[in-house]
Amino acid sequence: xxxxxxxxxxxxxxxxxxxxxxxxxxxxxxxxxxxxxxxxxxxxxxxxxxxxxxxxxxxxxxxxxxxxxxxxxxxxxxxxxxxxxxxxxxxxxxxxxxxxxxxxxxxxxxxxxxxxxxxxxxxxxxxxxxxxxxxxxxxxxxxxxxxxxxxxxxxxxxxxxxxxxxxxxxxxxxxxxxxxxxxxxxxxxxxxxxxxxxxxxxxxxxxxxxxxxxxxxxxxxxxxxxxxxxxxxxxxxxxxxxxxxxxxxxxxxxxxxxxxxxxxxxxxxxxxxxxxxxxx
Length: 280
Description:
Blueprint: E1 3-4, H1 17-29, E2 47-52, H2 57-71, E3 79-85, E4 94-96, E5 101-104, E6 107-110, H3 113-122, E7 126-128, H4 137-140, H5 143-150, E8 156-161, H6 166-180, E9 185-190, E10 195-197, H7 199-214, H8 218-227, H9 235-247, E11 253-260, H10 261-265, E12 271-279
Parallel strand pairs: 1-5, 2-9, 3-8, 3-9, 4-7
Antiparallel strand pairs: 2-12, 4-8, 5-6, 10-12, 11-12
């Protein structure tokens, strides 16, 4: 059984389990966080879908907590799907794991092998490729937040996107819909937004891109991304989850929080943008 060891524990988040748990809990009550840790009302939908950032927790954790407070409304999903970008260019264009476990300081999440096999079967673009995931942080940093909610009781379907063009997002979404229809699922798109620009410029670009998500406008999303040169790293993940959520009955998007690394750390000269969104 393959074991995917953590690549960024001790860097993006603490490697000590107790310290990590305390930091995650503090993200909820941080001034940029949702202000509470109690679960949201139970979700009626079969799918809970969000967009969550993936920087170091001291920068983006409080924004991510808005998404995970909504995730907690799904009491016991059948599976958790995290769609994330491939920053390192390793492995295949769209990849998953076949089986095994993903480890963090909070424990091990088993791979949803049946869902992974079904996704590979239904989407020709998806292959099994552990190398694509080996160094990647964007999916890993979502897992401790999920484990803090569910422990290790819910299996994980990890999806890494090296190719993030519109055609790939459409094809991947169609595959995910076939895998998830009729099941209770948590669906997470992992993405940061504008990178290393002054705060005012980053917020302006981000807001224009977020508007396309709120309008559920796939073509407008990709057009805005290109026209404004928005350096969102997980745009394909956002597009995929947006389409998948809509096909599964979640046709409306809501912005929960939009902030930057400057809001968290005080340096507004070169920031990274973060947004928490949900689909309802």
